[in-house]
Structures
1.
Amino acid sequence: MDTYDSPGWAAPGPDDDLPVIPTHPLRDDEDILEVMLSLVGPERAGPPALWLVLLDADGMMLPVVLPLSGIPLQPEPAQVRQVMVAMADILRHDAPGGSLAAGIVRAAGGDRGSFERVWEHALRTAADDRGVRVSAVVAVGEHRARVLGS
């Protein structure tokens, strides 16, 4: 894969070992799941985390990935809303008509458990409140992963 070649985004630095951003649009849930698995990598076995990826209106991934590690078992709605405010601002400024994809990560996860369901609901509620379209929510565990919904 090649890197996303957008003026002002590319620069050499300490993130050079990160996965390469796809150069093709992420058109379906499986594309998003594949990218999320690549991004999360060995963190699949780590503490619970939320990974957020932004897509432009054509499905191209923006070079914005927000991994939030050590998330609580029960989301705090006010905190989830604050994160969504930031994501909405980025989309409005850099990718009007774009969307968000989320990965809910925990070592024992990767399926539709209570942890994943409560986080998916919190994310979708906060996204709806801010007018952010959600392309997909995926559950990622150490040994399995699946799309929860789009």
Note: The radius of gyration is 14 Å.
2.
Amino acid sequence: MVIFELPQIGVVVGGHMAVEDDYQGGAESIIRLNDEYPEETLQGLEEFSHVQVVWKMHKAKPEDIELHARSPRGNPRWPATGTYVHRNHRRPAQIGVSHPKLKRVEGRDIVVEGLDAVHGTPVLDLSPWFPQMGPQGKVRVPAWVGEMLTDYWAPADSRPSQL
């Protein structure tokens, strides 16, 4: 197996404090670029509405990896699917990719809304979102994905309380 080392270019500040499914919407967070990267590296970013963020699932452990088919979220109503059909910390690289709304750039702070990473998450890469580089043609997904993610982008402050 080939192992790559990637630099951490920044960190997530604020936003979500705990790793949880669903209710990811509306939370504002900051991607704080490390000091060694000059502010000039962000010049022009504020002209875009969204950014693509690559981040390390730092709360995941190697023993969380599952290399077999399983039902999403353990729900038997949904079909067992392989490791690379899931978008969670159980994949070998334990890396996330998100496309939050860019609100503003303040020095080395990139203020975003809708980043589904938690406070303290290492950021590996950041780029503007170019729609022309997104999926081409009609996008197809199984019905269970829509069922599973019904509340994924629901506002964070509408999460039902857990007693």
Note: The mean pLDDT is 93.
3.
Amino acid sequence: MKKIILILSLTLLSNGLLGCQQSSGTENNNDNISKQNETTENEITNENYDIEGIVTEVSSENKGVLLDLTEKGNERAEQMWFFLNENTKISNKNEETVRFENLKPKIKLRANLSKCIQPAIPQCSAKEIVILN
């Protein structure tokens, strides 16, 4: 009887510890999401943006831009599609408004993103874009 009680106690204790570790991991994950959202909500500065890269393709049909990532973003991805909507702000380094039609391959830019899905090449909605060259 003592052995059964000891085994049950150890089982309950280990389940409780594993449950605490899993919730702790979730809290850290939520902190990372919050920090990412904080960065996204700010306007782009020299240090504050979600991704940076070189434009490799522009799709005027769906207002999409394929970027070869040079900094940040998904560490496993080398490229990312992002799509513009009516609220996306596009500007140059001098904060002058730029039209979508001015986005061409080989342009270097930075962007803040909103929603993303993660297939082989991540796809995101852009909130703000700054053309660097």
Note: The CA atoms of residues 106 and 131 lie 11 Å apart.
